[in-house]
Write a structure and sequence with these properties.
CATH architecture of the largest domain: Roll
Radius of gyration: 22 Å
Largest sheet: 5 strands, antiparallel
Number of helices: 6
Strand content: 25-35%
Helix content: 10-25%
Shape: elongated
Number of strands: 13
Number of domains: 3
Distance between the termini: 23 Å
């Protein structure tokens, strides 16, 4: 099917950008400028266009569907109701506790328990969403539960350059291609892995190599 004057099919590697909203509030994006505008910039996050294989999805539900709808060079949007994107909110996951108990568990004996703080009780993480003089209400629902998920994507291009394909495959498996070095000798591809890459990614090296061989 022609898309934006070119073809994008299942299995193509594409470069794309994304925006993710919970009830129209931006919660994640690959675009640094947009993250700064919405006060969600995270210094520990790597911003910039992402790579994926058409038909394999993305970091959030709906991204794969949006990518399949988008034209190369164009944008697409998918909206998912609770239960299809974020989980549905379960009233049973909201519980009340005695104020002194919560203060003790949170290590706040000498401080005031405040709404919005994160707390772990019996191995479950929750958010304090109501505080009275005697009781505290804690919401153990997953973050964004009950909210509508909206994703927007822009397909930048189909990746065809061999060097970029190699880096795309590395980034999809490891998260970053920084520090990797490639060389080819007598038809053999050599990949130098930086020392900063964790052992679990080195163990997954067979999968990375298999992906590269498939693309070649």
């Amino acid at each position: 099917m022609p898309r934006g004057g070119t073809f994008m099919k299942q299995g193509d590697i594409v470069s794309y950008d994304f925006e993710v909203y919970a009830d129209d509030t931006l919660i994640d994006t690959s675009i640094e400028e947009l993250a700064r505008e919405h006060d969600i910039f995270n210094e520990e996050k790597n911003y910039g266009s992402r790579y994926t294989v058409v038909g394999t999805g993305g970091p959030y539900p709906g991204i794969g569907e949006a990518l399949e709808k988008a034209e190369v060079g164009g944008e697409a949007e998918v909206v998912l109701e609770p239960g299809k994107g974020f989980k549905e909110r379960n009233p049973r996951n909201v519980k009340y506790f005695r104020y002194p108990d919560v203060a003790y568990w949170a290590g706040l004996q000498d401080k005031k328990v405040e709404r919005g703080e994160t707390i772990v009780i019996n191995g479950q993480q929750g958010i304090i969403d109501l505080v009275t003089s005697s009781r505290v209400r804690v919401d153990f629902n997953p973050e964004h539960a009950g909210k509508t998920l909206k994703v927007k994507v822009k397909v930048n291009r189909i990746v065809k350059d061999k060097d970029e394909i190699l880096r795309a495959i590395i980034e999809m498996n490891v998260g970053s291609s920084e520090g990797f070095e490639f060389s080819e000798e007598d038809g053999v591809l050599n990949i130098k892995i930086p020392s900063t890459v964790g052992i679990k990614h080195i163990v997954n090296g067979r999968e990375i190599i298999a992906d590269i061989m498939t693309e070649e």
